[in-house]
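Students often ask why inverse folding is considered easier than folding. One informal answer: many sequences map to the same fold, so there is more than one right answer. In these notes we will look at a single instance of the problem. The structure comes first.
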């Protein structure tokens, strides 16, 4: 019997009635598809028509509701930080700050607070790629007992601008150009460099943006910073300035620029997948949480203004005190409901944590609440599950608004009121002692539109950052500047940036000018003569964290006839250090090893390039290698791994492929038959000594 969807009616329970007629009873209510209003649907395959080939009928509310909901599923993406990836987890306080703050989350050692953390790029749209050269957002929502605390930071401790009023200009300049709609997710274009060249205050951040910090290997391997200066307040309201820091247990690691570009093509979701898969397999990323604390006197004694977001406080001047840890241990259940709808507000501050007069932060205090209204479409976005305060009750006398999900009882929607049964004052009231209080700091009395004189030094810390870098990292900064400025079509823009670089470091300006093959212009006029600050090695990446395979991935390329024992030794060594091994083969079905066993592949060669791994091993048979010599993807696999300074392990039969790929012997190219330990040691880091032999650096 033809049924509505052409399928045998085996999808409902059929039974014969007393008269022998066929009854089809419906499936259990909780398993039925319904309309959004609970009406069970009989057919989700066909719209209602006038006859099998007739017109669809307007009365088909099932079709109309479904299509109409679909038409309105997208909401405006974030105006910046549109592309993000997030996870749930917990924060645990390991050392009390009771001496400085009354915030329970900073006092109760051992207490665990639920968090939701969203990492993001800044410039690209929601559908752009994970590995552009860009800042990474590092936003943490702590669901504390005293209300949500949103620490909305970045993976770079300073920012491009000093005053919030310039933020729309900065973002307009860095995003795709207004007339042509490109480039997507890139700073290497005219408008960005025109803007930063005209804003010397951005120079320090430009150094960071051109450093390897902006091309992270993984979101699990980035540092985080609150950027702005905040205050802690103790019970008596005594303020202490504070800077917040996140330090990844896996260490900070970056890619090479060429690698980042290729990853963007091979796997636009590289960071999102890396975070999701690590958590999914129980490899939970963890960060230490640290603070830099200083009194007003200590702040006044510094040679820069801590209210200026283009300045950092070198750790060598004010050490970072580790007081807690964050572990991300659960993936979102639904990307849109959680990662897209989460709303971070720097104004979400529990009692005992307060803002400072940093003009950048001051502007942020307005912007986030405001932007959620257009993005989430209601003043009640705090009632969405992901935004709802969890660790505490929330009540007040605010009412109504779109999507009001709370059903308030009684008439008292104002305060004070005396409408409770007993006639006394009823409903929630302010708490002068336990409620949030602002630091009672003095403010000047004149209204002015002025930039503080103490903000005028735009080059000393840019110089500090550049000169504190290792030689390798300095070369990467210079090369990134050459790459980016080579994409600038306006000579006067390039020259202005070069002139500013002349105030950072004359040698840097010279190297970049040579890289562009243009004469280095005179340094631009600096408002204040740049000072040589004591270097801060803590600002480096290279050499700052232990070399490790933990959280890293090694790709083993195999062919038929490969030696299974070699694969096993490499796999065991990598996994023993907390790394992951993926088997890559010409076909996804895998290969037949020398011993006749089948080794399944995790990835097919053409779709699993070496750029997604931290190190590679080529375990090939002679015949298998002969085949791969004609396979471009295999050559690229080997060449890119070598070119990206990765360890390359190989079996003797793989030598022809290494030779054709131009791979020459060095400490990172290891014959696995001789010594797997050397391969594992090399795989824990990048072969920096190789770099100058594989690419010209500025
Ligand atoms: Fe943001 N920023 N920002 N920002 N920001 C936003 O709010 C803003 C700045 C940061 O994963 C927006 O919800 C102003 C610094 C992150 O959802 C918006 C200024 C830092 C995220 C906004 C800044 C940040 C945002 C857009 C200059 C590091 C993503 C979407 C004064 C401390 C949060 C949104 C998430 C998002 C305003 C500069 C971090 C437009 C006005 C500095 C991590 O409100």
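Output (designed amino acids):
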């Amino acid at each position: 019997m033809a049924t509505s969807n052409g399928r045998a009616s085996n999808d409902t329970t059929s039974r014969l009635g007393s008269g022998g007629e066929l009854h089809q009873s419906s499936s259990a209510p909780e398993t039925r598809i319904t309309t959004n209003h609970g009406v069970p649907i009989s057919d989700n395959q066909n719209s209602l028509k006038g006859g099998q080939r007739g017109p669809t009928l307007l009365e088909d509310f099932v079709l109309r509701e479904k299509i109409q909901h679909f038409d309105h599923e997208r909401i405006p993406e974030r105006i910046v930080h549109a592309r993000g990836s997030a996870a749930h987890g917990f924060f645990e306080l390991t050392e009390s700050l009771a001496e400085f703050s009354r915030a329970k989350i900073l006092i109760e050692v051992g207490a665990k607070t639920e968090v939701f953390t969203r990492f993001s790029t800044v410039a690209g749209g929601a559908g752009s790629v994970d590995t552009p050269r860009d800042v990474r957002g590092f936003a943490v929502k702590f669901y504390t007992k005293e209300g949500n605390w949103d620490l909305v930071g970045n993976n770079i401790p300073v920012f491009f601008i000093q005053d919030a009023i310039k933020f729309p200009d900065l973002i307009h300049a860095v995003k795709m150009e207004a007339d042509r709609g490109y480039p997507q997710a890139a700073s290497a274009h005219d408008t960005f460099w025109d803007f930063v060249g005209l804003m010397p205050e951005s120079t320090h951040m430009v150094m960071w943006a051109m450093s390897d910090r902006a091309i992270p290997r993984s979101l699990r391997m980035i540092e985080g910073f609150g950027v702005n200066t905040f205050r802690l307040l103790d019970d008596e309201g005594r303020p202490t300035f504070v800077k917040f820091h996140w330090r990844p247990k896996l260490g900070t690691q970056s890619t090479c620029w060429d690698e980042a570009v290729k990853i963007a093509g091979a796997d636009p979701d590289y960071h999102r997948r890396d975070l999701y898969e690590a958590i999914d397999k129980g490899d939970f990323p963890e960060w230490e949480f640290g603070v830099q604390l200083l009194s007003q006197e200590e702040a006044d004694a510094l040679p820069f203004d801590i209210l200026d977001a283009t300045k950092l406080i070198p750790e060598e001047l004010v050490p970072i005190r580790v007081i807690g840890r964050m572990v991300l241990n659960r993936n979102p259940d639904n990307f849109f409901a959680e990662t897209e709808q989460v709303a971070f507000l720097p104004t979400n501050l529990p009692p005992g944590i307060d803002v400072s007069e940093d003009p950048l932060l001051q502007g942020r205090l307005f912007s986030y609440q405001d932007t959620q209204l257009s993005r989430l479409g209601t003043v009640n976005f705090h009632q969405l599950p992901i935004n709802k305060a969890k660790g505490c009750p929330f009540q007040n006398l605010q009412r109504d608004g779109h999507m009001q999900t709370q059903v308030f009882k009684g008439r008292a929607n104002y305060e004070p009121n005396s409408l409770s049964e007993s006639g006394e004052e009823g409903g929630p009231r302010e708490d002068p002692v336990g409620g949030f209080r602002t630091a009672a700091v003095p403010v000047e009395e004149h209204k002015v539109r002025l930039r503080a004189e103490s903000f005028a030094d735009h080059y000393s810390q840019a110089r500090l950052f550049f000169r504190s870098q290792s030689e390798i990292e300095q070369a990467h900064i210079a090369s990134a500047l050459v790459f980016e400025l080579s994409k600038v079509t306006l000579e006067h823009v390039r020259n202005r940036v070069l002139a500013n670089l002349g105030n950072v470091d004359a040698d840097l300006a010279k190297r970049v000018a040579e890289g562009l093959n243009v004469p280095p212009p005179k340094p631009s006029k600096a408002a204040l003569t740049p000072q040589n600050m004591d270097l801060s090695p803590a600002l480096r990446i290279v050499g700052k964290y232990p070399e490790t395979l933990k959280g890293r991935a090694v790709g083993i390329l195999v062919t038929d006839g490969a030696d299974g024992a070699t694969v096993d030794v490499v796999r065991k060594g990598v996994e023993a250090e907390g790394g992951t091994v993926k088997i890559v083969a010409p076909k996804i079905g895998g290969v037949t090893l020398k011993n006749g066993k089948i080794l399944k592949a995790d990835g097919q060669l053409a779709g699993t390039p070496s750029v997604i791994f931290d190190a590679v091993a080529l375990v090939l048979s002679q015949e298998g290698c002969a085949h791969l010599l004609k396979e471009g993807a295999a050559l690229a696999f080997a060449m890119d791994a070598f070119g990206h300074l990765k360890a390359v392990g190989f079996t003797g039969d793989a030598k022809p492929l290494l030779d054709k790929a131009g791979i020459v012997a060095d400490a990172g190219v290891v014959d696995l038959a001789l010594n797997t330990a050397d391969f594992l040691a090399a795989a824990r880091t990048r072969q920096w000594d190789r770099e100058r032999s594989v690419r010209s650096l500025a």
